[in-house]
Amino acid sequence: GGAKPLAGRKAVVTSGPTHEPIDPVRYIANRSSGKQGHAIAAALARLGADVTLVSGPVTIPDPTGVNVIHVERAEEMRDAVLAALPADVAVMVAAVADWRVASAAGNKIKKKPGEAPPPLQLAENPDILKTVGHHANRPKLVVGFAAETENVADNGRSKLERKGADYILANDVSPATGIMGGDRNRVKLISADGNDDWPEMDKEAVAEKLAALIAAELERREQG
Ligand code: C5P
């Protein structure tokens, strides 16, 4: 291809954590920084794609050249992703909270002397990757991540099938790896063709390599 192999292509990327409110001032969250998802959005844009990045709350800046939609909750993230379809490729990198508080309080929950702590009833959040992977408007390429602390390849492959993805980038996020929140990543690319272990590299380099792969795969599929 030419210098901009993704020119004319639309991409939707999710990144960061979600915040699930308990009440107006408290929430449930996770340690995702958004570094990997933001780097992927930027890399796709550099290759010429029209990129919509749906980001949960992060402290890193919006990447340049990308249309960024800021959301808080998983349900808002799902709605923004579906509104961005159709797209040629979806890359779901966000660490979406598996559960939300079933009914968040409208006012701050008050601590009352002598009363037991309030129970937190949880409800399951939508699985955005699975929704997109099985959607009538499914992008030609659907990519997910799988953060695991054990059985990385097996868990990644079962996610590939269950969620209807073309690729899963599986990584070991055990605390000793320093991947969660860090600048480096080591992923295993899982696809119908098998598993490919990528060496440890910067999250920027993972993003470049994935964007190049996406461009090559879209091109290959076009040629039949
Ligand atoms: O949490 P899990 O390991 O299942 O996440 C695997 C993939 O699914 C990731 O790409 C993540 O962004 C996506 N996911 C999602 N919506 C969820 C849970 C996970 O899009 N509710």
From TrEMBL:
Record keywords, A-Z: Decarboxylase, Flavoprotein, FMN, Ligase, Lyase, Magnesium, Metal-binding, Multifunctional enzyme
Q: Does the keyword Cell division apply?
A: no
| Residues reported to bind CTP | D98, K108, P126, D127, I128, L129, F145, K159, K163
Q: Any idea of its EC number? A: 4.1.1.36, 6.3.2.5
Out of the domains of life, which is the source?
Bacteria
Q: Where in the numbering of this chain does the DNA/pantothenate metabolism flavoprotein C-terminal domain appear?
A: 6-216
Q: Which reaction does it catalyse?
A: (R)-4'-phosphopantothenate + L-cysteine + CTP = N-[(R)-4-phosphopantothenoyl]-L-cysteine + CMP + diphosphate + H(+); N-[(R)-4-phosphopantothenoyl]-L-cysteine + H(+) = (R)-4'-phosphopantetheine + CO2
Where do the record's region annotations for Phosphopantothenate--cysteine ligase lie? Answer: 11-224
Annotated Gene Ontology cellular components are: phosphopantothenoylcysteine decarboxylase complex
**Keyword Magnesium included in the entry's annotation:** yes
User: What cofactor(s) does the depicted protein rely on?
Assistant: FMN; Mg(2+)
Q: What does the note accompanying the cofactor annotation read?
A: Binds 1 FMN per subunit.
* GO BP terms, alphabetized: coenzyme A biosynthetic process; pantothenate catabolic process
| Pathway(s) annotated for this protein in UniProt | Cofactor biosynthesis; coenzyme A biosynthesis; CoA from (R)-pantothenate: step 2/5; Cofactor biosynthesis; coenzyme A biosynthesis; CoA from (R)-pantothenate: step 3/5
**One MF annotation (Gene Ontology) recorded for this entry:** FMN binding
Q: Family, per the entry?
A: In the N-terminal section; belongs to the HFCD (homo-oligomeric flavin containing Cys decarboxylase) superfamily.
Q: What does this protein do?
A: Catalyzes two sequential steps in the biosynthesis of coenzyme A. In the first step cysteine is conjugated to 4'-phosphopantothenate to form 4-phosphopantothenoylcysteine. In the second step the latter compound is decarboxylated to form 4'-phosphopantotheine.
What's the name of the protein? Coenzyme A biosynthesis bifunctional protein CoaBC
* Naturally occurring in which organism (per UniProt): Ensifer canadensis
Lineage here is: Bacteria, Pseudomonadati, Pseudomonadota, Alphaproteobacteria, Hyphomicrobiales
Q: What is the name of the gene encoding this protein?
A: coaBC
Shown chain mapped onto the complete sequence? 183 to 406 of 406
